[in-house]
Amino acid sequence: MVELHEMSRQELAASLDAEVHALLRDAFPSDEATAAGDYYPPYGPPATILVLSEGHPKERRVIGHLVAYRREIAIGPEPVEIGMIGGVAIASAHRGKGHARALVDRTHLRFRQWTLPFSMLFAFEPSVYASSGYKPMANTTRFRDPDGTWKTVVHRGGMYAELTGRRWPNLPIDLRGPAV
């Protein structure tokens, strides 16, 4: 049986931290923060973390993960608080079963509760997110690279979802921090 757990960073540290980081190391082997043992600090405090697990309580295994952030960015000259999704990972034996979509759908529910007009993510496999309403971004995007330099590019794999009636503008984006 698959269970969805929504938790804070502190709750994760107290229960499933080692298993989640093993999943993230497997999914993102070249990510420096993950390799160092903690995925979250470079991106700021998560708003919420979603974890999928399966099995009986004594034999529970982590099979999925998503971390959601709230961040004020600039869209053109306007400051806008949006939701950002990162660290989406599904164990290889569990891919193709709708688990990533379930995590994203739950996150969208939370973002709507917080009245965030948009969600953004940067996808390795953009086709995975199209069924959840994500569209490719054509916006120039300014962000802080892991080496600390600021870059402005049209990020291939950058995607957005409209969560309210507000339309996504085709204006420059300033993430005011790292891409998640």
Task: Describe, in plain words, how this protein is organized in 3D.
The chain is an alpha+beta fold and 180 residues long. The chain has a single domain, classed as Aminopeptidase (3-Layer(aba) Sandwich). It has 5 helices and 10 strands. It has helices spanning 9-15, 17-27, 32-36, 99-113, 127-130; strands at 2-7, 48-54, 61-75, 78-90, 118-122, 135-136, 141-144, 150-153, 158-162, 173-174. Strands 1, 2, 3, 4, 5, 6, 7, 8, 9 and 10 form a 10-stranded mixed sheet that branches. A hairpin with a 5-residue loop joins strand 7 (141-144) and strand 8. The longest helix has 15 residues, at 99-113. The chain starts with a strand and ends in a 6-residue tail after the last strand. 33% of the residues are buried.
Describe the protein's topology.
Blueprint: E1 2-7, H1 9-15, H2 17-27, H3 32-36, E2 48-54, E3 61-75, E4 78-90, H4 99-113, E5 118-122, H5 127-130, E6 135-136, E7 141-144, E8 150-153, E9 158-162, E10 173-174
Parallel strand pairs: 4-5, 7-10
Antiparallel strand pairs: 1-2, 2-3, 3-4, 3-10, 5-9, 6-9, 7-8
Number of helices: 5
Secondary-structure element series: EHHHEEEHEHEEEEE
CATH level-3 fold name: Aminopeptidase
Average pLDDT, to the nearest integer? 93
How much helix is in the residues? Answer: 10-25%
CATH class type: Alpha Beta
Rg over CA atoms, rounded to whole Å, is: 16 Å
Large-scale geometry: globular
Count of all domains: 1
Number of strands: 10
CATH architecture: 3-Layer(aba) Sandwich
CATH homologous superfamily grouping: Gcn5-related N-acetyltransferase (GNAT)
The profile of the biggest β sheet is: 10 strands, mixed
Low-confidence stretches: none
Strand content: 35-45%
| N-to-C CA distance | 30 Å
- Give me the secondary-structure category: alpha+beta
